[in-house]
Amino acid sequence: MRIRCGGTLRPVTLARVDLAPLFGLQGRFEGAVRGSRCIRCGNETLDGPAYQVLLVEVVRAVMMHDHILSNDKARFLRKAWLGLTQDELAGRMGINKITVADWERGERPLSKEHDYELRGIALAHMLQRRGKGRVRVDAGLASELAQVLTAPRRLTSPRRRGPYVIRQRAA
Ligand SMILES: [Zn+2]
Known about the structure:
By secondary structure, the protein is α+β, with helices and mostly antiparallel strands. It has helices at 19-23, 48-64, 71-82, 86-93, 97-105, 112-129, 139-148; strands at 9-18, 27-38, 44-46, 164-167. Strands 1, 2, 3 and 4 form a four-stranded mixed beta sheet that branches. The two termini are 31 Å apart. The site of zinc ion has 7 residues, from loops. Residues 3, 5, 7, 38, 40-41, 43 line the site of zinc ion.
């Protein structure tokens, strides 16, 4: 397969994927992801199915995160996962659009209640997609995520520990 630069794409297994260009998340995924690399310019891309698998892995990691959602994580759930505008999410949550915009700009943290609510909407979306064949969500994952909603949530931001790194779950 030839691409714009005139190079040829070769299938590769990517050991790490930068999440910023894909999802707007400051961090990376480490694991084995199916993709392609251009033999001329080195540009790496994900296969469509691999993108869907990675998306679910990242959603899982973000939802299991035991601190209040940071601005980029909240935006990731709304935009990349739920596919909602700020307006639409605000409508679903019965809040002002300005509040959502403020979270995403990092001007105001999510309240504990709004954090739970956003994760709840994200979980409902995952359960909805389960069984539709587009995304495989096993029952273990679904119940694991459900536990997230009842777990205590730390109100403070995590101490800076370098980039947000998501590691692939053991198969
Ligand atoms: Zn190229």
